[in-house]
Specification:
heterodimer; A: 285 residues; alpha+beta; Immunoglobulin-like; 3 domains; 8 strands; 48% helix; B: 195 residues; mainly alpha; Rna Polymerase Sigma Factor, Chain: A; Arc Repressor Mutant, subunit A
């Protein structure tokens, strides 16, 4: 093949180089149909590349003209199977493209995923709102519980005080009770009185009693008949008016075994044995 | 002189094929089906004429329309569609014909892209509808001397060069060149005469 076109090139074109527009124009139709041999084709392409507008326009028309030769082909009809195969392929590719657009486009996220994210966000907001609401409710309930606890303690204290008062009143009014006067060692101090019931307990009262010294309080002692050590009992603290009333339901010793009651000033919290001289003393029997 | 009548179509005018190609860019299967209905017969006829084997021709036609579908973005909407499609089909069919030949390998790079085609149709394209223009083409080429007609057919349907045609017809190279050029010029004048 090479020797053929070389021979043709030498034979037909040596000394007859195509070098004018008219000569190039004569090659346009053959170039458009694709029948130019290699040397002519190369020369024409170089000429077209140089920017010859006339030849370029002629080539455009020649290409259109050559395409019309397709009508020389005898009419024929492709099979329905060809159309079926093509449409099947195209539909599958179109569906794939649509799926890719859903993933990549708009953000690339499919609508169901957006819906899921939205639902998750709503659920998170709802959960946070519920948690906040529950936190408030818990805090409210805790506050209510504290109030109710304080109220219950107050009522219990009132009830206890009422019971104590009732108990004390019963001790004071019961004929079995024995009244005991406690006389002060210091004549400037007021007398104290006690009422001891053998079953219901012992009550001690005082009026205009001066407050004990700093970090000090009063403490009741039972002095045994047998001459043993004083037995510690309740502690006492006068109010701002110097008044106090205290009761011991179960004294550490029985009235019949107790010689006397005594009250001393002791450190806060009381003492297991007296640390100071008695300020008040009253004989029991 | 004839270049004076060769100009792009009126600006703003959009052909039905260009509209369908625009829809094809949006992956419109309906547009593809309509393009196939409009042009599959002439494409198949051309490819079958080149390859002369129905099954192979259908494979090529399938490739052509799939290329249309997959690479529609490469098509310049301002250019005439049918000549472009026919040129694409012819190139594909000739590639198939030349399979395994050296020329095939040379052509492969060209056919990876869509073929070069006229940037605009001549004004006289509008003078005849496709059917009448096809009749005029057949009539004119059919009126040519047999050898001249054969030379044009060998160039167009077989993809032979001047030298190859001359060797095939056992005619002088210059005669073959003249036959092909004069035949195409007569066709052009014939089509122009209708406008």
């Amino acid at each position: 093949m090479d020797s053929q076109w070389l021979a043709a090139f030498k034979g037909k074109f040596t000394g007859n180089i195509v070098n004018s527009n008219d000569q190039f124009r004569e090659l346009i139709e053959a170039y458009a149909i694709g029948s130019l041999d290699a040397p002519e084709r190369a020369q024409l392409e170089a000429h077209l590349a140089s920017g010859c507008d006339d030849c370029e326009k002629a080539l455009q028309e020649a290409r259109w003209l050559v395409s019309q030769l397709a009508y020389l082909a005898p009419n024929a009809e492709p099979s329905d199977m060809l159309k079926g195969r093509l449409l099947q392929t195209v539909r599958a590719e179109a569906a794939g493209s649509a799926a890719r657009r859903q993933v990549v486009g708009g953000a690339g996220i499919p609508s169901w995923l957006w819906a899921g994210v939205a639902a998750l966000l709503l659920f998170s907001l709802y959960s946070a709102w519920i948690a906040h609401k529950m936190h408030d409710e818990v805090a409210y309930l805790q506050q209510q519980a504290k109030i109710e606890q304080a109220e219950r303690e107050r009522l219990e204290a009132e009830l206890g005080a009422a019971k104590t008062q009732a108990h004390e009143a019963m001790i004071w009014s019961d004929p079995k009770s024995k009244k005991i006067m406690l006389r002060p060692k210091d004549p400037k101090m007021p007398d104290l009185e006690a009422m001891w019931h053998p079953d219901m307990g012992l009550v001690v009262r005082g009026w205009k009693v001066p407050s004990p010294g700093e970090k000090r309080m009063l403490q009741l002692w039972l002095i045994p008949k047998a001459g043993g050590k004083p037995m510690p009992s309740m502690t006492l603290w006068p109010d701002a008016n110097g008044k106090f009333s205290a009761m011991v339901e179960n004294p550490p010793d029985t009235m019949s075994d107790t010689q006397a009651l005594a009250i001393t000033e002791e450190p806060i919290g009381g003492s297991p044995q007296p640390t100071s001289a008695p300020m008040w003393v009253g004989g029991v029997s | 002189m004839f270049l004076a009548v060769f100009s792009p179509k009126g600006s703003g005018e959009v052909s039905p094929d260009a509209t369908l190609m625009q829809q094809l860019l949006r992956r419109d299967v309906g547009a593809f089906e309509e393009l196939y209905e409009r042009h599959s017969r002439i494409v198949y006829s051309l490819v079958l004429r080149i390859l002369r084997q129905g099954s192979t021709a259908e494979e090529v036609v399938q490739d052509v329309f799939l290329q249309l579908w997959r690479n529609s973005a490469q098509y310049d909407l301002s250019r005439p569609f049918v000549p472009w499609l026919l040129t694409l089909a012819r190139n594909r069919a000739l590639d198939q014909l030349r399979l395994k030949s050296e020329r095939q390998r040379r052509r492969e790079e060209q056919t990876e892209q869509f073929p070069q085609i006229a940037s605009a149709a001549p004004e006289y394209e509008q003078a005849l509808d496709e059917k009448r223009r096809a009749e005029r083409v057949r009539l004119l080429i059919g009126s040519l001397p047999i050898a001249q007609k054969k030379a044009i057919e060998l160039a167009y349907f077989e993809g032979l060069s001047h030298s190859e045609i001359a060797a095939s017809l056992k005619e002088p190279l210059g005669t073959v060149k003249s036959w092909i050029r004069s035949g195409l010029l007569r066709l052009k004048e014939s089509l122009r005469a209708t406008s």
